[in-house]
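Contributing new records

If you add data, match the layout below exactly. Sequence lines come first and carry their own label; structure lines follow with theirs. Keep one chain per record. Anything else will be rejected by the validation script.
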Amino acid sequence: MSIPSTTSRSSRATTANHRQGEGATAKLLASPWKFQQHGESGLWVSDLFPEVAKHADALCVVNSMQTDSRTSQAFLQLHAGIFQFSRPSMGAWVLYGLGNENENLPGFITLCPPANNGGPSNYGSAFLPAIYQGRGSDSTAPHHPGQGEQHCQSEAVRFRPRQQLDLVQTLNRTTLEHDR
């Protein structure tokens, strides 16, 4: 993957071919942050992530994903590979392949999954045994009363990544304190 040479730092805009119209172009806003290639692989990493850049050759990056689907279908296709039929989510397949060292916790969680974009199918196990299904972060709330449920039920909060990460951090700290 390369960064287009037509990127202009002053206007911070570039043109790129748009898939839905042959020869059509779309204006894209260039990143306000600097990107550099790292490692032998030449992986482009933002200067915002200097620690990630140190491990560029150890990362698995998928650059070939594309879809002709609309937003809600594409969201499900991203997580399950197809939007038309029920298939295990990416998390379920990873859990199936790698296993889970902990018998008391779900193998993975998803942060406040949007109900209108596939809902539980985004972290479900479909035809795999239910043990490989993940959990939505709002469904973990009853185990920690008052912390998660209100946080995820508010539509205004549902799409704020910082607050979602804070929720996971709070749950991690509570679990750590409980285990001591």
